[in-house]
Amino acid sequence: MNGAESLVRTLVQGGVDVCFANPGTSEMHFVAALDRVEGMRCVLGLFEGVVTGAADGYFRMKGTPACTLLHLGPGLANGLANLHNARKANSGIVNIVGQHAVYHIGYNAPLTSDIEGLARPMSAWVRTSPDSKSVARDGAAAIAAAKGSPPQIATLILPADTAWNEADGIAAVPETSQRAGYSPQAVDTAAKILRGGGGETLLLLTGGALTEPGLALAAGIAGKTGCKVMGQTYNPRMARGRGRFSIERIPYVIEQALPVLKDFRTIILVEANDPVAFFAYPDKPSLLKPEDCEVHRMTASGEDSVAALEALAGAVGARPQDAKPQKPMEIAWPAGPLNHASIAQAIAMAIPENAIIVDESITTGRGFFPPTASAAPHDWLQNMGGSIGFSTPVATGAAIACPDRKVICMVGDGSAMYTLQSLWTQAREGLDVTTIVFSNRIYRILHGEFEGVGAGEPGRRAMDMLSLDRPALDWVALARGMGVPGRAVTTADDFNEALARAIAEKGPRQIEVQM
Amino acid sequence: MNGAESLVRTLVQGGVDVCFANPGTSEMHFVAALDRVEGMRCVLGLFEGVVTGAADGYFRMKGTPACTLLHLGPGLANGLANLHNARKANSGIVNIVGQHAVYHIGYNAPLTSDIEGLARPMSAWVRTSPDSKSVARDGAAAIAAAKGSPPQIATLILPADTAWNEADGIAAVPETSQRAGYSPQAVDTAAKILRGGGGETLLLLTGGALTEPGLALAAGIAGKTGCKVMGQTYNPRMARGRGRFSIERIPYVIEQALPVLKDFRTIILVEANDPVAFFAYPDKPSLLKPEDCEVHRMTASGEDSVAALEALAGAVGARPQDAKPQKPMEIAWPAGPLNHASIAQAIAMAIPENAIIVDESITTGRGFFPPTASAAPHDWLQNMGGSIGFSTPVATGAAIACPDRKVICMVGDGSAMYTLQSLWTQAREGLDVTTIVFSNRIYRILHGEFEGVGAGEPGRRAMDMLSLDRPALDWVALARGMGVPGRAVTTADDFNEALARAIAEKGPRQIEVQM
């Protein structure tokens, strides 16, 4: 077997059996190996941002890494923005990038570039395989790195001759470090803090703490100690909906975030980051907590936050029945005109049991949390890196990971344009994704940010850089162009009906909400 | 004035008066300055690959740099593939990337990444401006770097506080190195080679040598000395059409390139690179020249190749009338079915006087050169870096640079999908671009490359990674979605008619050639 086949067999044996790919000449032996190796599902994307974003979505739902297949430096470059988002979400990905044959690199052919240099800013692990005998072992090491605690982006660069020359066989994935744990001392300190003054303490959660059991434990701790529980502004995945502990998130808008945090004396971080402003603004702080607020980290990313919360509940004597009852917001199918509130109601009504929500509705969606807490139980995925064009690829990968769950992707028109090629992959693979495009014909968030950074009101030329209305994008035509049935709606009744139908049917659908 | 305004004023005064932009929060003060500063044309792209590719096309036609405006590391990352192509074309670009405020960078906000690390592989010059008093001077230095000999990618990173704090005023662009020249010794050596055996010598041209005067001089030298004149496989820009010296290029396919070069004893490089294979293939050489072939560089990129060719013509006694007459291929509107030959004839007939052709018709277009040598005079632009998704952005920038010239963009469907957002910018700006999409529903080139690298015939799973036919892309719908009128054709008659009409009308049009 050649190096490419040894790598594909090593991946499959190591549990990496989905490959999101946009290959070129230097990757053809990897592609050829697919015909000879059973067990690798290869999914084509027509742009590399789709490929890397799909690998992120796959990991978030499956908990184990997929691999990618990208074409040299520029192919990697096109995938970097969504690797950035994946890295900030602590998603594990085996990122495979083709390279010229080792002896060809020095000739400065057109596609030659510094691939390792491009990979490093978005990868925790980078290696160029030196020869065909090493490829399997390097692939196994990449899998181990991607599955680490915390999971990470492992970029394996594969020169073409290492793929076509003879290999020695497959390689086993080395044992990774012991199972994720937590620090009992950090839990003890958290317990002391809570016993000393729960009401002035914020338990700030993300990561594994936002699973259903993690949230239930936090609810008990809050009920017992009086502490407040919140989530980060953005979180990789959060269990939500009826019967689950519903928590608020730190608001994105800094003028709203500061008052929310102003009375806390201590913040206990459960995987979460010390809260910072998304951007800097003139004369406003970068850190959102009050100056005299202490911060205690109970768990870091890669640690077992559910076990730590269980220990904390034990230490403070919190039981499940200590959780305070929550009064869910009432929801109903809306009528009349479409606005942020009626859209939120319709979505809350439409979410089916066990749905996966991928949320990139940056401005339209700011009010979606309260009503959707009353929806059927679901998982909610958000953009951790702030690079827009995240949601449609992530929805694609989530649907590959969970073929029996409905995926609902909510995205603004500005964001959706970056990686609209996702729809084609959804059509080809028959993925059960309903994409809702909020078509307000403006980078709405920037209109707010313009004022936020003290630039006043945009004039005509500045406004041209924020608006998408000339010409208007026709999302139904764009979806049709890629084989996805689409529909535009302008009223709540039409939106209700379009949503209900898209949810009831199987396969990719798109709804353009014209605002 | 604040730092952003000092930068915009410095750019305009330095002759950089077009900005291709996809801004975000950290760039809002730059956008706001547009309202206060006259003379900067700002063109919005809905994806950064459009922005950077447009700056490449602008430079190729205008000869002076435009600037870009990109949003932090991920925005830069999305533009890197077309910066790679621009770098390989020696295009000058002032690449401006926003960054968090200096004091905010250390807090690891979602969008934080190593921007300088991302920029370096595709930039010759990288600088992060430290404060608002330095921004104008750093901008002037970036302009000087972009206008260097050779021109280059200069990436200026602009922390948000350097944009909003007070500046000292504008800065003048420092004197660049003296005007481009050439080495008289290198010309003498070339003359000696030609006098010693013109028939065994190849004059290999690119860059400035492929202008109309450069080609005319080469034609005289060839007529006088018997040397052969060829162009690189790909060239940034070539003057072509009736009345101009028509030259062949080194074939892309290695099996065709090797016999073309096998009898040369010497290759004289006029800006060109020593010819190397685009990719490595098992048991085939990387260098395309014969082993005993000598290579002499007469000019490098950034030197004045027309002056050098003039000196060479003088040294060998070549006059314009020494040029051998060329017999142009006859062209006529084709009839019957569409195939590579009839498509080439139709395009050759349709090209209007002074058109700009942007060519990314990777497989369909391999035979376009002979008939289009008989077309009306035009410029022909190609992809220098091999990263597909190059042509529709480059056509966009070329049309901004040359509003009075028709731009014809020829692109395969696979390539067009990477940066299809270009069409929206063409619609918004009313650009006179006719895009011809060759819709063969396959990465056709990879089908050939699969065999070329010795992987045999693709099986079902491998073929899935090469084909775009499930579902078929509807290019007319995609164009309509972005505000560009489109039409699909399947016969030569329809193609003739669609082409003639698109050329006759002003504004963006798209023709989908279904093959």
Automatic annotation (TrEMBL), chains A, B:
Q: Which residues form a coiled coil?
A: none
Q: What Gene Ontology molecular function terms does this protein carry?
A: acetolactate synthase activity; flavin adenine dinucleotide binding; thiamine pyrophosphate binding
What's in the keyword line of the UniProt record? Thiamine pyrophosphate
Taxonomically, the superkingdom here is Bacteria
Please verify whether the record's keywords include Transit peptide: no
Could you tell me which InterPro entries the record lists for this protein? THDP-binding, Thiamin_PyroP_enz_TPP-bd_dom, TPP_enz, TPP_enzyme_TPP-bd
Extract the CDD domains matched here: TPP_BFDC, TPP_PYR_POX_like
Give the similarity note: Belongs to the TPP enzyme family.
User: Which residues are in the Thiamine pyrophosphate enzyme N-terminal TPP-binding domain?
Assistant: 1-107
Please give the name of this protein: Thiamine pyrophosphate enzyme-like TPP-binding protein
Please provide the Gene Ontology terms (biological process) for this protein.
small molecule metabolic process
Ranges for domain Thiamine pyrophosphate enzyme TPP-binding come to 377-513
